[in-house]
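Re: flavin-adenine dinucleotide structure - here you go.
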Amino acid sequence: MTALSFEFFPPRTPEGQQTLCKTAEALKALSPQFFSVTFGAGGSTREKTAETVFDIKRHTHVATAPHISCMGSTKESILELLKTYIANDVRHLVVLRGDHPSGFVGRAGEFRYANELVAFIREQTQQHFMIHVAAYPEFHPEAKNAQRDLDNFKRKVEAGADVAITQYFYNVDAYCYFRDACLRAGITVPIIPGIMPIANLDGLKRFSSICGAEIPSWLLKRLDALAEDEAAIRQFGIEVVTDLCQKLLKQEAPGLHFYTLNKAEPAIAICKHLR
Ligand SMILES: Cc1cc2nc3c(=O)[nH]c(=O)nc-3n(C[C@H](O)[C@H](O)[C@H](O)COP(=O)(O)OP(=O)(O)OC[C@H]3O[C@@H](n4cnc5c(N)ncnc54)[C@H](O)[C@@H]3O)c2cc1C
């Protein structure tokens, strides 16, 4: 059985929190290895992330990983957060540099890059946490070049990461080339593809242009042709993303991590097709 995980963002309201627990409950039927909860740009959701993690864990009894980022963090604030997570029996973390909120000017925090934060967490908590980090088959948008990005990824793994989760992509070759380049560079941690179901075309285009994930032109043209018909986009999206997942599993991807955007249905539909 493929190792599955599902990512959420912290809802803004108590009603949103309740809905998210139901979403997590529905996804639990797919026997995920873990859920994860993002950390707002600039560290804006520190408490909300923790609350959401504890809430989901309490409702579903599924391991739930907080994302934790360098943005706005000091060594002291990270230590405090780690203590809270240890006290609440959290065992997985997704460790990131994070992004600035738009319009941000100033200093990001005491850690510059994710590798520094990974090293600090390992030094302070030894092997308590399974540490996941981010990887970019289509390269991080700020990377000077592909080789530097790979070197920086390796630095993060050598600092103590156990597993990597990729940015989403719709091009299987990008994943395979990246994974093979990692192996050649001596990076042997599992690299789990991040999967973005297709539901909202405008949102997908906007986010892809920021994070550097390419929507192949054949796919974009087909989606644009359906632009007025949300149901048709969802249906086509399920078909395309199921096919992507099938190809990745054929290439022996070690799991699938779904960016759910707090919706259960697309991920459930894709996983049902996979089975
Ligand atoms: C699975 C996943 C989950 C995510 N969750 C969140 C979230 O919850 N909250 C959020 O704000 N963002 C999240 N992001 C986005 C992420 O924070 C951004 O992509 C961010 O810009 C980079 O984070 P990173 O941890 O990959 O950074 P890093 O690994 O630090 O890399 C950032 C850039 O700096 C370069 N670099 C790295 N180390 C060095 C070094 N030592 N010297 C020089 N250059 C270096 C890299 O090549 C890269 O270009 C997520 C991304 C993924 C893939």
